[in-house]
Each structure stands twice: as structure tokens, then as C-alpha cells.
Design a protein that fits this description.
single chain, alpha+beta, S16 Ribosomal Protein, Chain: A, 5-stranded mixed beta sheet, 35% helix
């Protein structure tokens, strides 16, 4: 059985609340799970202690049993110091779009022309 440590969504519309659960990877996101391991409330401020609560001992048990955390849960575990940080690649996300590149080229061209015009005016 392929185990995952993942988030199961609760809460009402536009008011998300998540449970951190150990579940079979074939089950639906909000479906059957084996054990509740903690909670995550994204509506609270980032520095709040109530934002992420985890049962560290049980999470370590499930990691020992071969459960794989999802990306978001692994970030929580890294912040808590349970799992070592992974190297992540953000290849295209930080790169500007086509229109932004064109605007930057036009701006650079105008900046290059401006000093040349000032030198000829004197």
C-alpha cells in the first residue's frame, strides 16, 4: 500500500482548513484516511503557532513506515526540522513573460539613445 502524508481539505467555501493525514495514495483527497497527524489553517498569520500543528512522533513513525509527504507537507516538515531541506528548481517561474521582456528591451534602447542625444546637443 502506497502511503502519503498529505492535506485533506475541510472548512466552508472561501474559508479553507486542512487536516494533515496519513492516507493511502489511491484514496480521494478528502476521502478515507488512516490517521490524523495535525492541522493547517492558512487564514492565520504566518507567525502564529496555531497555523500549523503536527504530532511529530506519529509523523516520524509514518515516515519510518515509508510514507511519502506531499510537497506542501514536506515544506511544513522542513520548517519544523523533521526532514532535511530539498533542493527545488523553479525554472520558468521567476523568468519575465514575453511582453515584459519587450518592454525591458525598449527601455534599454531608449536609455542608450538618450545619452547619445545629450552629447550631440552640446
Amino acid at each position: 500500500m502506497a502511503m502519503k502524508i498529505r492535506l485533506a481539505r475541510g472548512g466552508s467555501k472561501k474559508r479553507p482548513f486542512y487536516r494533515i493525514v496519513a492516507a493511502d495514495s489511491r484514496m480521494p483527497r478528502d476521502g478515507r484516511f488512516i490517521e490524523k497527524l495535525g492541522t493547517y489553517n492558512p487564514l492565520l498569520p504566518k507567525d502564529s503557532e496555531e497555523r500549523v500543528k503536527m504530532d511529530v512522533e506519529r509523523i516520524q513513525y509514518w515516515l519510518g513506515q515509508g510514507a511519502k509527504p506531499t510537497d506542501r507537507v514536506s515544506r511544513f516538515l522542513e520548517a519544523a526540522g523533521i526532514v532535511e531541506k530539498k533542493e527545488r528548481k523553479n525554472l520558468k517561474k521567476g523568468e519575465p513573460g514575453e511582453k515584459a521582456k519587450q518592454r525591458a528591451e525598449e527601455k534599454a534602447a531608449k536609455a542608450a539613445e538618450a545619452p547619445a542625444e545629450e552629447a550631440t546637443a552640446e
